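Hi support team,

I submitted a single chain yesterday and got back a structure, but I'm not sure I'm reading the token output correctly. Could someone confirm the output below corresponds to the sequence I sent? I've pasted both exactly as they appear in my results page.

Thanks,
R.
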Amino acid sequence: MDIMGDFDSDWSADEQVVRGVAERAGLHVNQPESDSFGTCRSGTRRFDWIVISRQLEFVSFEVLPDILSDHAAVVAEITMRSSGKTGDTLQADTPLFRLFGLDPLIPCPGADFGIV
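Hi R., thanks for writing in. Yes, this is the structure output for that exact sequence:
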């Protein structure tokens, strides 16, 4: 499972929206404490997140440089975690799918989040 969208919250914000969702649901995010993934126009605040289950892992994660709304889009390539069993053929760095998250230019109810 993944949840992605504009949480309007940093990882360490007082409300701890993103951290709370991730911890309660047993999910994780890519480098939560990193300052390299700012999604707001200022480039320093990270409000847009992709939160994934523990059975998945990030192969890549980036914030696109173009601002199409009040936030930048985030893109992640995701794969299954290796189980470590003999005979596993999927390499850990082989993306299974690519997620693209963008805060909509025109606010629409329920449009800020995507759940897969």
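A quick pointer for reading it: The chain has one domain: 2-84+91-108. Let us know if anything else looks off.

Best,
Support desk
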